[in-house]
Amino acid sequence: MNLTLYLVTDDAYFQDRDLVQTIESAIKGGITALQYRFKNKTARQMYEELLVLRELTRRHGVDLVVNDRVDLALAVEADGVHVGQEDLPPDVVRRLVGDKLYIGYSVNSVDKLKEVEHLPIDYIGFGSVYETTTKKNYRLVGIEGLRQAVKLTNKPIVAIGGITHYRVQEVLSAGAKGIAVVSAILGFEDVEKATRSMVEAMKGYYRKVMHMP
Q1: Rounded Cα gap, residues 102 and 59, in angstroms
Q2: Catalytic (active site) residue 37
Q3: Are the C-beta atoms of residues 4 and 178 closer than 8 Å to each other?
Q4: What angle do CA 194, 198, 200 make, to 5 degrees?
Q5: DSSP state letter for 118
Q6: Where do the structural domains in the chain lie, given as residue ranges?
Q7: pTM
Q8: How far from the centroid of its chain's Cα atoms is residue 161's Cα?
Q9: Distance CA 176, CA 167 (A)
Q10: Is-catalytic flag, 167?
């Protein structure tokens, strides 16, 4: 499980753009994980796209996570599945996937985090850390909320929501183990370049922490 730089897809960014080519550019740029998340496609369409992406991600050593759809995640032998508070409960998901897949769970408050700590999940998606235009009905947790969340759980936290390359340092210093992004990569025409900007910002933070030149 490598969720260091975790790209999440979104219907809005693929109206006039080829899915596979775009993901390939992001992989070249340096993403470590891809969450396949679409709301307006048929199960058959998603399955066929996921088969192609599974082969692509496997070839490049990038994790493939499927949002919501446990059946599709199992069907294409994804690495993980990500669920939220309106999806199947994590204990039910665990019974279905066993140890074949890791499970991610979305949390949007510190109070909610305390309630889910005992669940059979492998990482927590926590946000929105900043204001975002990607999601309509989101809850702002803020950077302070992220700091508190990291102290409250031993599970790795992946921060999400409004994170751009110039906010990477603040998010990582708050203790996030990974950064999930949508518009910071998909909002740019040159996806590979946008991804590299995120990677460089992350490398810059770790160099600073380790006192490297």
Answers
A1: 19
A2: yes
A3: yes
A4: 110
A5: T
A6: 5-209
A7: 0.94
A8: 10
A9: 12
A10: no
Element at 3 (helix H, strand E):
none
Which one is catalytic: 37, 112, 177, 196? 37
Does residue 159 contact residue 129 with C-beta atoms inside 8 Å?
Answer: yes
134 in Cβ contact with 104 (< 8 Å): no
Cα–Cα separations (whole angstroms), residue 69 to 62, 65, 87, 126, 186 = 19, 10, 9, 20, 22
Question: For residues 8 and 160, what is the distance between their CA atoms, to the nearest angstrom?
Answer: 10
Q: Which helix (H) or strand (E) holds 144?
A: helix 142-152
Least Cα distance to 183 among 167, 156, 163, 157 occurs for 163
Fold of the domain spanning 5-209: TIM Barrel (3.20.20)
Give me the catalytic one of 106, 128, 183, 197: 106
Residue range 137-190, pLDDT digits in tens: 678 899 999 999 999 999 999 999 999 999 999 999 999 999 999 999 999 999
What is the rounded CA–CA span in Å between residue 163 and residue 171?
8
Whether 135 is catalytic is: yes
Q: How far apart are CA 59 and CA 64, in angstroms?
A: 11
At 22, the pLDDT band (50, 70, 90 cuts) reads: very high
Q: Which of 41, 94, 112, 135 is catalytic?
A: 135
